[in-house]
Amino acid sequence: MTKTSLFAALFVVALAGSARAGGQAGSLGVGAEYMLNGAGGPSFNYDGGSFHVGAFFFLYDPQGRNNTTYGLGARFFYHVHSTTTSDFGIGAGFGLVSVPPGGAAVDRSTLVYLEPGVQFRAFIVSNVALSLTTGLTIGVVDASGVALTGQSISGSVIDLGQGVGVTAGAGVHYYFF
Question: Who wins on pLDDT, 150 or 121?
Answer without folding.
Answer: 121
